[in-house]
Amino acid sequence: xxxxxxDPVSGLQxxxxxxxxxxxxxxxxxDADVRxxxxxxxxxxxxxxxxxxxxxxxxxHMNAPLHLIQKGGDLASIPVDRFFGNGAIVDIPKKxxxxxxxxDLEKATPAIKSGDIVVIVTGWHHxxxxxxxxxxxxxxxxxxxxxxxxxxxxxMVAIDTPQIDHPLATSLGAHRGGPxxxxxxxxxxxxTGLDPKVExxxxxxxxxxxxxxGIPTIEQVGGDVDILKGKRATLIATPWKxxxxxxxxxxxxxxxxxxxxCRIDSGN
Length: 268
Description:
Elements: E1 5-6, E2 13-16, E3 35-40, H1 42-45, E4 49-53, E5 61-63, E6 84-91, E7 99-100, H2 102-106, E8 117-121, H3 132-136, E9 140-141, H4 143-151, E10 156-159, H5 184-192, H6 196-199, H7 205-212, E11 217-219, E12 231-237, E13 247-249, E14 252-256
Parallel strand pairs: 6-8, 7-9, 8-10, 10-11
Antiparallel strand pairs: 1-2, 2-14, 3-4, 5-11, 5-13, 6-12, 12-14
C-alpha cells in the first residue's frame, strides 16, 4: 500500500478519502464559489484567522436528512454511531451518464453486509474539477439502488460523484428550477439516445430515499480511495454538530489493521 499513514503504536493504517477543501474548490452549478480571506494576518498581528463564505455542499461533504426531507433530522441529531463502523469500499466503475443499480450493488466485491457503511467508487473522483464533465456527465444511484441500500440497513452511504443522484434526476437537468446546466438535457439525449424524462422521472429520488430512512450520505469522496477499492475497512466521518444544519464539509478516513490484532477489518 502507498499513501498510507501508519500509527506507530497500534499499527493501524489510515487512508484519506476526502478531497482537499478551500478557496475556489469546485462548486455545484448554481452555487457560489467558496471564498476565504485572512481577516487576521501573521505579519500584522502574529496570528492568522480566516473568514469564510461557503455553501455547505462543496468538496467532500455530508448531507443530513434535513437536506431533502422536510422536518428531517439535522446534522446535530444524527446518532454518532452512524459515523463510525466497518464497511465496504465497492468498485463499480461507470461511464458517463450511467447509473449504479441494485444489481451492481448485489454483485459488488466485497459483499455489502447488513449495517455496513458503504463507499461506492465509480472512478469519477479522478475527474474532480470545475468541469462540465465532472458535474453534468457523472453517474448516480438509481432508485432501486437506494432502496436496496435501505433494505440492507446501511449506516451511511458515500460516493465519489458530485451527488448521490444521477445529474438528470436533479435540478442540473430539467427538474425543479432547472436545468442549471443549459446543454445537459440535449447532451444526454445525444450521448445515450434516451429521454431523461423517462429514465429519470423523479427529482433526487435516490437521495430522498436514503435520507428519509435516516441514512446520512457523503458526496465527492476522493483522496486515496483507490487504495481500498474492493476491500473492507473501518470508516470514520467527522461532521459538525450543527443544529439546523443540512450539510457540512466532512473528513472521511478509512482504517485497516493488517496485523489482525484489533477488532477492525484487516483491509485484506
